[in-house]
């Protein structure tokens, strides 16, 4: 169950990371509220996941999910570059996340 909480915490981390771009420096109320909500909910779910997972593993997976998701959405939504090197590095992060999951 801890892995499920951690997965959703990672998804919410993607939400707040992308949301920061849309807050326009916290000047737009709706994106700001949604971003802050995502931050809080992500931290709560991470805290719940830590009850059953080692902190180093959970934190690395949480940030890894956030990093991969944010990078991919940056490419898709924001027109960021999708070079082979960049996509290869994202793949390495995914391998690291899977490795930590298998080792836990």
UniProtKB/TrEMBL annotation:
Gene3D superfamilies with a match to the protein in the record: 1.10.3730.20
Cross-referenced Pfam families: Multi_Drug_Res (PF00893)
Listed InterPro entries: EmrE-like (IPR037185), Small_drug/metabolite_transptr (IPR000390), Small_multidrug_res (IPR045324)
Keyword Protein biosynthesis appears in the UniProt entry: no
A Gene Ontology molecular function term of the record: transmembrane transporter activity
TM region(s), chain numbering: 33-50, 57-78, 84-103
Gene Ontology biological-process annotations: xenobiotic detoxification by transmembrane export across the plasma membrane
SUPFAM superfamilies named in the record: Multidrug resistance efflux transporter EmrE
Subcellular location: Cell membrane
GO cellular component: plasma membrane
Protein name (database record): Guanidinium exporter
Organism of provenance: Manganibacter manganicus
């Amino acid at each position: 169950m801890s892995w499920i909480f951690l997965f959703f915490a990672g998804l919410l981390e993607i939400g707040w990371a992308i949301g920061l771009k849309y807050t326009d420096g916290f000047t737009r109320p709706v994106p700001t509220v949604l971003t802050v909500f995502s931050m809080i909910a992500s931290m709560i779910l991470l805290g719940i996941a830590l009850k059953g997972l080692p902190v180093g593993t959970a934190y690395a997976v949480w940030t890894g999910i956030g990093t991969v998701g944010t990078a991919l959405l940056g490419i898709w939504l924001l027109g960021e570059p999708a070079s082979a090197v960049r996509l290869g590095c994202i793949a390495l992060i995914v391998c690291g996340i899977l490795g930590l999951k298998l080792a836990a």
